[in-house]
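Handoff note, outgoing to incoming analyst
You'll be picking up this chain. Sequence as last confirmed:
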Amino acid sequence: MNANGQVPAAVDAAATSAPALVVRDLEKRYGRGDGAVTALDGVSFEVARGSVVGLLGPNGAGKTTALKSALGLLLPDAGTVSVMGVDVASDPKRAYRHVGAMLEGARNVYWRLTPRENLRFFASLQGLPQTEARAAYHDQLLETVDLADRAGDSLNDFSQGMKQKVALACTLARETPVVFLDEPTLGLDVEATRNLRERVRALADEEGRTVVLSSHDMDVVQAVCDRVVIMNEGRVVADDEVDSLVGLFRTREYAVTVDGSADTVRAALDGAFEPTAFRELAERTAFEVTVPDDRFYDLTDALRGAGLQVSSMSAVEPDLEEAFLRLTERGGETPRTAERVAPTPGPEGER
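Most recent structure output, in case you need it:
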């Protein structure tokens, strides 16, 4: 729980039942004429309160523009964003009371202050008085980013990575019901990254706060997110639970080891399958092959017909990174994820 056992930020009446975040039909173009670049092309999605949602996409997909539009830092050409029921464009100050954010490369901390003083200052901006419980909560945040032993030192002596950690802790110290984290693990070591995973899950599970997380660290996203929204070329191409997206590609790729040479394997599967990742293992050959759902026995028959005895075969379990790459490379929706995408037709930083 947080310092008071609940989220202390004032909640408007409009926010009591509204989703934490509603992004609807966002459009944004940079430049004019033939040189114009479309950063957002009808982007829509919602985030339920108390959930952790990952916003993913390759460089240039539109993630940063979407995040900054949600925070009121950019004015979209069309569309709306509401946070806890408050329209960001029409009432930004009211919306800001509900939001804390750390954007990639932004380290808005005061270098002459200590980490503990920074946390106390940023909490005060939210109107949170310093109490014994809140001081303990701040100590917990500093422990999360592995800075408990430097809590009383001036940031002037800190590395950029350490300042990144303080900025992250300050974002969480405001105790807002909605938190945007853009590349929060950048500059974190293994221990701090593991602590961050636990803290992000605790924000949702124990404090009921909502987290929108944008990161290239797929392990972190898969570990902490309930759902992911994948963007590509300014559009949402997938919106589903993590397990569902990973499951789209489950049991279709196999790791196989046979008694025989790689040349024999290639000849046996030529024209029917495309084996890859060959490894010679003494008198055996290991390889990987992607098999459509209804052609598994065609694969085994082809190997047997070439006199290749299979010594081992196992399904290669996919992960979120694989699902992400397949979805963005194909540049469109999959049949299962299309149902979850919001009903819309289809620079700064990474657009």
